[in-house]
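Deviations from the work plan: none for this task. Representative record:
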Amino acid sequence: MRIGDAIAPAARVALVGLAKNTGKTVALGAILAELEARGETIGVTSIGRDGEATDAIDDAIAKPPIHLPPMALVATTDRLLERSAARTEVALPTDHRTPLGRVVIARLLERGTVEVAGPVAAQDVGDVVETMRRLGAERVLVDGSIDRRAGASPRLADGVVMSTGAVLSADLDQLVRRTRAAAELMTLPAVEDAALRARAAELRTSALLLEDGEAVPLETAIVHDRVEAIVPLLRGRADVQALVVRGALCEPLLEQVARARRGRATLAIADDATRVFLGRGTCARHRARGVVLAVLHAIPLLAVTTNPVAPLRHRFDAAELRERIARELPGVPVLDVLADAPVPA
Amino acid sequence: MSSVAQRASLDAVRPYGDHLDDGLVQLSFTLPVDHGPLAREAALALVRDKMGLIKPEIVHAKPLTPGYTYFVLFAQCQHAVDCDRLAAVRTATRAMSEEEVDAFVAERLGRPIVVIGASTGTDTHSVGIDSILNLKGFDGRHGLEAYHWFRAHNLGSQVPNTALLAKAFDVEADAILVSQTVTQQGLHLHNLTELVELVEAEGKRRDLLLVCGGPRITDELAKELGFDAGFSKGTYPNDVAAFIAQELAARERPPVDAAAPEL
């Protein structure tokens, strides 16, 4: 399968890397090339600015430039556009401003490179995505920098392409484990019980949902800081149906829930996977302790790309890496876009 | 008055020695070679053949200890840097002193700016955040605590991102300042992106200015991480204060007034 086929079901595609230098920009380049060959009108945006030609940490690492085809739409800022060598026209200025100037949606009049810089807040990026769709983009790509996941939120995107690579670990087993854990987190299942899902979606604040239909609201401070305060609220209660967190659902809270529930199964619900923050833990570890994670809006994982090279450090065999990851993620297309790419003429 | 010629454009800036665009640079280094003709030849070859410089000239050579020679050389740099390009991708902040910042906030915002800062995660270095926030500041310039129109909260070092965020909501912060020592492998990058993601997950990214600082943090890296600005060495508290004040003022202005060219 080619990456263009893998993303076919999603009109809005988010690109997420598991770390810096996992090959996300290369994946973006491959997607652009395939979509152009299909004659699709493409829009590209990012959350904030996605960096320049060289790596911002180590300038010995060159980043591949993103070549946009003619007629592609790109989110950038007025100041960055002035500096661009490519011939463009401003399709629409937006109301979003960044420290680099006002965000504009530009249309390329020839093949070229324009620095992508969308609004800083994901919510505003959602507006830009919708605007690009209105302006005729058949497919919009939301490029996330470093290891940022916010672009994958179902509010912005219909699916995600995740990039993993050798840079995650010099130990192949660990690299595979970490990729599997990240994929599991990204694809947290939607709450199955439709009634429960509807009740959770109606909540304005975080709360404990009880079986009798009551909701015990939780203060923000309990959710984020004084997480131990959830223990007395949970201890001895047999009627807790689910813990619902509106906003960020973080590992320290999950630890306390497990402690309070002593192995009793507890459903913890977040809006979507981009709002779940696990430190060292994995979904499987929390599940083993009785805490089952679920979301109101699931994120389809369209494809995983593998990059066998850790720049200036180590490398794995490309085929072996891809096969190992593919074995862990049944049903998900796992691609090495460089190895799979046709040799350029 | 200076009679030094000023160039109109900054698109090809070269080092200045005796006259504009001569590209003259001074280098100093030590080679582990005994002082003598061979060491001199090695120093010249290194600069001429490996460093991208031309016309190297040794102006000082001194034996340090047997087997080592210290050199000072002049050479010509053939490359130029495009400052206009750099300026375009930098945060444009007008430099302001403490007094100017206070006056600006009083006039443009008319309310105190609430700032909260910490050195997050496992990072134990608090010197950066202390020098920006604490009353004493550094190098004779007050930290934000001393500003009349700033309310500064310093949580110290090794603060978890979640705790920083909870406190930021608690004090209704306008800006979060994070100090972080990013290592060559980018070890602490995840800690920085996680803070941004947490703010996003809470739906508060529009309402909070996020600023990071540290020895290896550039404005460019900060933006890539999802922050609004990044500050590194050579930054004084008033630089950070000026950015926050001006950025907040720009955000409070309706977008139609934004300083954007007619499109």
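Chain A has two domains: 3-187+299-340, 194-295.
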